[in-house]
Amino acid sequence: MMKMIIATMILSPTALTLKPKILYQVMTSYTFILATISLTFLKQNNFTKTLLNTHFNLDSISSPLLTLSYWLLPLTIIASQHSLSLEPTQRQRMFLATILLLQTFISMTFMTSNLTTMYIMFEATLIPTLIIITRWGHQSERLTAGTYFMLYTLATSMPLLIAILSLNNLSYSPSPFFITTKPLNQWTNLMLWMACLTAFMTKMPIYGLHLRLPKAHVEAPIAGSMILAAILLKLGGYGIIRMMQVLPTTKTDMFMPLLILSMWGAILANLTCLQQTDLKSLIAYSSVSHMSLVVAATLIQTQWSLSGAMTLMIAHGFTSSMLFCLANISYERTHTRIMILTRGLHNILPLTTMWWLMANLMNIAIPPSINFTGELLIMTSLFNWCPTTIILLGLSLLITTSYSLHMYLSTQTGKPSYNSTIQPTHTREHLLMTMHMLPIILMSFKPELIM
Fold first, then answer.
1. 103 near 95, Cβ under 8 Å?
2. Terminal CA-to-CA distance of the chain, rounded, Å?
3. How many C-beta atoms surround the C-beta of residue 187 within 10 A?
4. Distance between CA 383 and CA 375 in Å, rounded?
5. Burial of 203 (0-12, 13-18, 19+ CB in 10 A)
6. 373, 419: one domain
7. Model-level pTM?
8. Over the stretch 403-429, which tens digit does the pLDDT of each residue have?
9. Which of 360, 265, 373, 257 lies closest to 309, judged by CA?
10. What domain count does the chain have?
């Protein structure tokens, strides 16, 4: 574990010292090597167990998310290459160093076996993300988006810190996750649960605490959007699943208001998607609806629902990242994100239309994709818990299909409304799409790797 963390940390100063001519070649190659090594973590065997120590640990919950974060690291660099090439070399170096610093914090959050360290790293991810949004965002609203992002996260993470300090005092062992707490009364249990859930649900985010997310996505550069949607949202789900092992056991009925809010939130976020005109904003709201399903699944705390939540988080990581990349490809050519102004792209970029279709089908969760596996497990476990939920879940699924097809038809079909010359797509962009789609297809054949 330490080898991976040290290798990632060293890449940050490397980005600041490399010659400009070989900057992207070296950084992309090194990050691809790290991504390849991280694939070994998916198979928990004696070799991976020898890499563990008392401070860092990997299990079936953290290893798929860690692999996802390392896999998307080179892809963020490839996706940002065109927009960064127009900037001074020093800013390009700083951008790469910030991305790698963020990756270091993310990997330490997933690897650590200590509650306090997890909280510190969980909060530390805020700083590089804030720098990426405010420094490399494209519009003047980026400072407002950064402020929203910071205030939401900091305000809700204070109760989490108090809860963690309280758990450390109550536990019999100081550091590991698997601690046995002393018996507490019902209200203390509820307060501890609510303090932890509020922080992690804001990170996901649950509907009602989601306003920072579309703003941050719209203002962030492509690398920021990819990391936000694919990895940082998953910190919330990971945190909830992790804290279940630590917090005193509580009945699912206690979470009834949050379960109802998450399922209604999924429907409301989907309906919001239908009225969006901005492409990035639409994809951001679709993330809110998918994460609401993950919240509902984690709260009922059954084996199937947790497997479904983990599967959907990984599948959504690749799908949303791919959609943001496609939106960026369109934006770099038409210089607008308004969907009605980007229509008719299938006449000019037919191969990109194929990628759009595949990404939207994955977003709909068409069988036999890994997205379908995740949603099927979640829907089955929720239906088993309460049959009435099938109405809300069915409605949510129907609206998801509607806005995904609306997004595809609005951007690809029709008569083009622009006169400027459109550049053809580059091999770099097709490689980017392939590297997103390949894991989704391969995981469909062997989903137990990430369950």
1. no
2. 21
3. 8
4. 12
5. buried
6. yes
7. 0.93
8. 999 999 988 888 776 656 788 888 999
9. 373
10. 2
